[in-house]
Amino acid sequence: MPKKIDHEERKEKILQTALRVFAREGYRDSNLSLIATECGISRPTIYQYFKDKEEIYYYAVKLVTGRMFNKYASFAWSTDQDYISRITTICWDIMQTASEQSGELTSLVDVMLQMKKEGRDFNQIILRRTAKLTILFKRLLRMGVNEGQIIDCDLNRIADHILLLLESSCFQVAFLDTFDMQLSKQLIGTYLDFYRVGNSF
Predict the structure, then answer these.
(1) pLDDT above 90: residue 121
(2) pTM of the predicted model, to two decimals?
């Protein structure tokens, strides 16, 4: 009896292998044949899942951001923490996850930089994929303001600032050996506490 193939598992294996190949060979010098060989599958098999290496990259970004949003949306509405604490917890978890998966993160950012050099800017793709997280931050901020936990503020600007702080932390994780997790957590915590009603600033 033929072995049943878990297609999602195979797709993720291709993805993880591709990221390793991109990191080692560089995006320009990588190809589906090399990725297929390292996966232990044939090139025609890999075409059943991805038409080219660019599609693999899209899938990686979609998978990572999709899982991230589902996790944090679920947490945001299932905890009794105050709203600033909910946002802070989400931010700290994103930084912790980035640190724990720094190799994959470095590969993703490195591919994005290589593609930019080739004239393809993935900035809009990243923005689209992180839009749900920004909306979640805005909702939490709005509810905090409405319930008297957060001072009246420009919700769009604050949500954008939070995302910028997270992007900065993730970039440091990917490329700087000097990244200080505690300092970054403290920075985000201090920034968010400023908007808490009754803060001591």
Answers:
(1) no
(2) 0.81
